[in-house]
Amino acid sequence: WHLGRLGSIRVPTLIATGALDPNSSPAMARAMQAEIAGSQLEILADQRHMMNLIAVERVNALIRDFVKKHS
After folding, report:
1. Nearest by Cα to 37 from 19, 66, 10
2. CA nearest 34: which of 11, 59, 15?
3. What average pLDDT does this structure show over 11-35?
4. N or C: which end of the chain has fewer CB within 10 A?
5. For residue 44, is it left (φ>0), alpha (ψ between -120 and 50) or beta?
6. What CA–CA distances, in Å, run from 62 to 1, 4, 22, 27, 42?
7. Using alpha carbons only, what angle is made at residue 27 by residues 29 and 13, rounded to the nearest 5 degrees?
8. For 1-71, where are the E strands, in sequence order?
9. Is the pLDDT of residue 17 over 70?
C-alpha cells in the first residue's frame, strides 16, 4: 500500500473496516492506524466491504460515538 502522507494527519481519525473485507483489509487498516497518531481503529468481526450499507446501525453508532468523543 502507498500510505503517502497519512502521518501528517493531526485531527481525530476513525478507521473502520470489516474483518472479512478483501478490498479495505484489516491489515491495511492497521497500517493506516500505525501512521496516524492517536487514530482509532474499529474492525467489525462479521462484516465485509460496504459495511455501512449492511450494518447501518452499527456503523452509525461507531461514527456517532466517535464524533461525541471528539466534540
Report:
1. 10
2. 15
3. 96
4. C
5. beta
6. 25, 26, 21, 20, 8
7. 10
8. 14-18, 40-44
9. yes
Let me know: does 53 contact 28? Beta carbons within 8 Å: no
| Side chain identity at residue 50, one-letter code | M
DSSP secondary structure letters along 10-28: -S--EEEEETT-SSS-HHH
Three-state DSSP class for 58?
Answer: helix
How many C-beta atoms surround the C-beta of residue 68 within 10 A?
Answer: 8
Output the CA–CA distances (angstroms, integers) from residue 44 to 6, 9, 11, 22, in the order listed: 22, 24, 23, 13
Cell numbers that stand for 50 in this block: 460496504
**Cα separation of 64 and 8, whole Å?**
24
3-state secondary structure at position 8: helix
